[in-house]
Amino acid sequence: MIKSKAYTPFTSKEIKPSGWLRKQLRIQADGLSGNLDKIWPDIRDSRWIGGGADGWERVPYWLDGFVPLAYLLEDEDLIKRAQRYIDGIISNQKNDGWICPCEDSERGRYDMWAYFLICKVLALYADCSGQEERIEKVLTKALKRLMFHIRGNTLFNWGSARWFECLIPIFWLYERTKEDWLIYLAQMLKVQGTNYRALFEEWQDQKPHNDWNYQTHVVNLAMAIKAEVFFSLISSKEDSINEGEKFAEFMLGELFKYHGTVYGHFTGDENLSGDSPIQGSELCGVVEAMYSYEQIFAITGSTRWLDRAEMLAYNALPAATSPDMWTHQYDQMTNQMACVRFMGRPIFGTNGPEAHLFGLEPNFGCCTANFNQGWPKFALSTFMKTKDGVLSAVIAPAVLNTQIDGKKVTVELDTEYPFKSSAKYTVRCAEQTDFELAFRIPGFVKNARVGDKTFLPGEVCRIKKLWHGEESIDVTYVFETELVKRPRDMAAIKRGALVYSLSIEEEWKKHEYIRGGVERKYPYCDYEIYPRSKWNYAFASREFEVTEGEIGDYPFSSTQPPITIRTRALEIDWGMEEGYNDLAAKVPHSREGIGDPEWVTFKPYGCTNLRMTELPVLCCDQKK
Questions:
Q1: What is the 3-state composition of the chain as percent helix, strand, coil, each rounded to the nearest 5?
Q2: Among residues 478, 498, 523, which one ends one of the domains?
Q3: Which range marks the domain in which residue 140 is found?
Q4: Is residue 101 situated within a structural domain?
Q5: Is 617:491 a contact under the CB 8 Å cutoff?
Q6: DSSP state of 45
Q7: Of 134, 167, 193, which residue sits at a domain end?
């Protein structure tokens, strides 16, 4: 038996993005994510559909984002292309249920992570396409084969590190069949998989040690935050969900304490790499952490998990892609005044000299395939079902069309949050319908006002009534701009869900070439980026001027950001990290101001390609 979740997600059949969020998904569909099956051999020519290229995680990773993207946008071309892959994968399923592209003799050596992932994708596809009956049969065969397979071939490598991801399709199928063998399979996976509770109760990885291993791999850890919460749904312990969440908080607290960033993630390039602003954080880790937080919230109902998801969605995710989403970084830095090849002594602990570039597949191609799940799954978290009605969960513009007690209900959220401070909910019911509309107050606000009532950060406003016709509710968020402390006596600007970085003028240097049979050709070529304005500043004031603009064609534009902050700063002799020509020193060489304070502009972290975010604080006035 599976315990009930606090909230149940809606599907893409009911949720549709609107406003700037729809723009962002359209940009993604017109960019790299929506074209990988045309240009990238590992997707275009994959063994999953009968080709000779990669037959492991890359097609499942890509489909995990491409499928919901296609259905959220209701784009018939994207839907047909997704269906081509799903049909091909299903048609190649073996009679005994095995579903991955390998010879029978290779099964014992096949890392089962890709098996888990494709089963997870199939469940998602069923929810999006409505083909539940068809996918139920496919997953029944696939998961039964998995159960028999791991009896004689225990999990290893990535499959062991990510065992809990298979709970997603297992639970999906159990909700429809109520067959006990699925619970047994889930228990077998836990026994054979990595025990993250044991790992963190005696944790030894507070300091980065620059050797590659599964236990400090940033993506494994980003996924694993939800492991105990997921398994709590079938635990026999009465208080298992609460205990699972406590462990998730403890695990995350340790990661943030020693490896945390100002934008709400932990470093890992690819493995945990400390709290330096010039260490990297892998893009795969960002989108997997977002998904973990969204899922933990649905199970526990604790709103702080959505605060964490929003922090990543509105800062780290867009910062790691170009505004047109044709290129991405493998590793992003909090302070990156240039993006160049680091030849010679590498700055990244376990990644190569090109991990910092914007391109098609810098360092490894896993992020090329996987980053595209971030925005679609975030959009699917805008609304969730409650026992009494509807919850507006993550705050982003979207429209929900659903039925309550057999009656059609529409709930629309019109907002330019996180860039602006207002939101409007509009409820439309042709018939009288009694239900509760609830909406989350983000934890980043000072407070929020709904009519004549004031709500505190993290609260949920609940309006239960008989709805009829069209009614609107206005919400106003009150933000504060502040300098937050960072390690090494540095600070950064935060306002609401947004972190702000110094605006740096950029020069992009294009590189088109072929390597290993893979072509980098505009617009999906590689780029180095060089600064063409000063970046070596320290804060010289706690006074901030906020200027709101319009959201343009690119919501996270680096040239036309929707909001900016001006403050006074002093130029300093920051200097370069020893051994590098294009890498700001981890700690400034000097904290003495040069000349007089000047006004400088900061823009949202997610609107930057080059950025200086954590700066020293000098000669600040007393106004806070």
A1: 35, 25, 40
A2: 478
A3: 31-193
A4: yes
A5: yes
A6: T
A7: 193
Closest CA to 115 of 66, 65, 60: 60
DSSP 347: S
Token pair of 276 as six digits: 């330096």
Amino acid 327 reads T
CA dihedral sign of residues 90, 94, 97, 99: negative
The CATH number of residue 439's host domain is: 2.60.420
Q: Which residue has the tokens 């998961």?
A: 143
- CA atoms of 111 and 226, how far apart (whole Å): 21
- Output the pLDDT for position 19: 98
| Residue 294 covered by a domain | no
Find tokens 């000098």 and name the residue: 618
| Other residues' Cβ atoms within 10 Å of the Cβ of residue 337 | 23
Backbone φ, ψ for residue 475 (5° rounding): -125, 135
pLDDT at 312 exceeding the cut of 80: yes
Per the structure, the count of domains in the chain is 2
How far apart CA 160 and CA 196 sit, in angstroms, is: 11
Bond from prior residue into 597 cis (ω within 30 degrees of 0): no
Query: What is the sign, positive or negative, of the torsion defined by CA atoms of 291, 295, 300, 303?
Result: positive
Q: How far apart are CA 85 and CA 51, in angstroms?
A: 12
Q: Is 100 part of any domain?
A: yes
pTM above 0.90, yes or no: yes
Structural domain contains residue 70: yes
Q: What is the pLDDT of residue 184?
A: 97
The owner of tokens 């051994």 is 579
Residue in the block written with tokens 């191609």: 365
**What pLDDT is stored for residue 1 in this prediction?**
82
Angle at 157 between CA 152 and CA 160, to 5 degrees: 65
Q: What does each C-alpha distance from 41 to 37, 76, 88, 481, 511 come to in angstroms? A: 8, 23, 16, 46, 19
The pLDDT of 290-303, averaged and rounded, is 98
